[in-house]
Amino acid sequence: MNNGFRIDTDINRSLTLKQTKQAALNALQEYDIDWSSIYFIQVSEHVTFRIESGEVEKFLLRIHPESKSREETVSELEWLAALRRKGLIVPEVVLNREGAFVTDTATSGGQRYYATLLRWIEGERLDKRVLTDESIRKIGALMANLHEASVDFRPNNGFARPSWGSQSFQRDWEHLQRHHRHFISDEAIELYTMAAAKVASHLDTLEPNEQNYGMIHADLHNGNVVFHDDEPFAIDFGRCGFGYHLYDMAQSIMGLRPSQRELFIEGYERVRKMDDYAIQILECFFIMSIIEAYSFHAENALEIEGLIEEQPYAQAILRAYMNGEPFMFQPLDEVSFS
């Protein structure tokens, strides 16, 4: 899916990085920080840089494409401020010299962007292979605490964040249908079509309330959690929006091993108990998340090889879902590939 940056080829990616670094340097002139170093991190919904000021202070500078909604970016920062008022440790926005969240910036070639600056959350990302059982439980509890803190969140007029549900899924599914041939055969897409229909039907039966729906992170995978003094903290809220809590959970556990998914849920239930029928709904959101992920990467030539390699397992998961068989907590060798 188009994220606003041209990164579909090595040449376009190189040009984008050159332009956004220049935009970052220009943006930094609008902040009262005495910075000494700048390091590129990654391209996602925005291009990110780590900014260092002396030996102590660090910041996260985000460069956003001009096409992305400023209202949504400001609303993200407003939600972070609300979470901080609840006592959660999440990124804190740094205002520019004009006292604004957002800073206009551009390159010498006229390419326009805007920037936001956040205080750095200190910590280390841990690969899922080295996460301890207790670390995974703590990530589950972290998600539950985010949900608890958002139960009584009342957005101001003009608050604008995306909603993750039936409509967003329909958009992603239509996009995948147009671009699936890069890594999904015409024969295999039939299985995706049946699974997508089942997901859409299930979504239509859900009823949101303040206990199961609200503002969510929507992207709390391992790469967006850092550990400091053995405690996890959430970072990168760029995809946050309104959605079901179980959808938030599905986005997180999708990248974990089956046994680790159970530990995540154990940790979550230390803070918030799940309903008896939650696993069935979680399976629906799990399939929704798989389709969304493939839709997002479908046009990125650099991702195609990996997407092709994943298909045997992905299609086994889809078959299990269609057959009503358990799959989220099953080891790979127990998921049928036939």
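Above is the first protein from milestone M3; the second protein from the same milestone is given next.
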Amino acid sequence: MLIGVPKEIKNHEYRVGLTPSSVRELVHHGHDVIIESNAGVGINCSDTDYQAAGANIAGEASEVFEKAGMIVKVKEPQAGERKMLREGQILFTYLHLAPDPDQAKGLVESGAVCIAYETVTDSYGGLPLLKPMSEVAGRMAIQAGAHCLEKENGGRGVLMGGVPGVAPADVVVLGGGVVGTNAVLMAMGMGAHVTVLDRSLKRLEELDLQFGSHLNTIYSTMGAIEHYTQEADLVIGAVLVPGAEAPKLVDAELVRKMRRGSVLADVAIDQGGCFETSRPTTHAEPTYVVDEVVHYCVANMPGAVPRTSTFALNNATLPYTCALADKGYQQAMKDDENLRAGLNIHAGQVTYEAVAEVLGYDYTPAEDVL
């Protein structure tokens, strides 16, 4: 199979679909790889590095899309990229379709086979291709939140860890999954006072065992959310409903009651955000203020650390990329129900139930189209 990797064009997105080592592995499997010139410059990998791994270099993205049987990316295809997709072509990338009807419409019309990293599952019920970026985003949310709390950035002027005689920042994490756990890890490492809210008692027990009595674990109810967010300096939105829109846990009225200069960091923004006042931002303009509360809602947060993010992502995606290329997408998905869960759109049909439901499409099970 000829596998194509275009350069990412989303605002301040520096990650790339394949590393040189991943290219070498695919070439070893007998496949050809074509990569757009300078696609890896954001992770400090040159065209020469890719050529040494066995890739061919294309001058423009249009050549990659025209020739490749499978496109491997990181972020969802932008409007111009969607127009270059063709019927039967495989697209393997993050999609996050539920809050993005324009993208869904474009992919349905393309006739392409669209497989989303974020809905591929594993035998434990986890999301193995979402996990590495969730780890990065959870840790970055604290890093970004600490920066936003500085006075010149509109924050309260609070140091995360405080100093002897002065209280540290109060950090509230909504959701104890992969994002939330990594946010807790970083916030506690910086010396903050941390509270995590989750609706799973089992998960709260696990977090209590992992972090001990220094972490405040609270069962999540609307009353608890209202209480703890009003007392917080920094709130991390870390909830996820796989493939569907994130629930709105903090409404506009509650935002108005929060401390002046406090910060909301919405890691769920890819799925629509879990704060009512959230809207996607970019690394160029990462924040805005609503009712004197700073909002950090960058939709591609891990893109700020592209080298770490790309290598972490490739560690997870490469086995699936190889399977799709080695077997063809139909056989690969018939053999692996977890990979099959990643199929969101197939030849104009929506094959992921949560996406079909929220966007108003007829749902066709993946098994039916395979």
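Note on the second protein: The chain has 15 helices and 15 strands.
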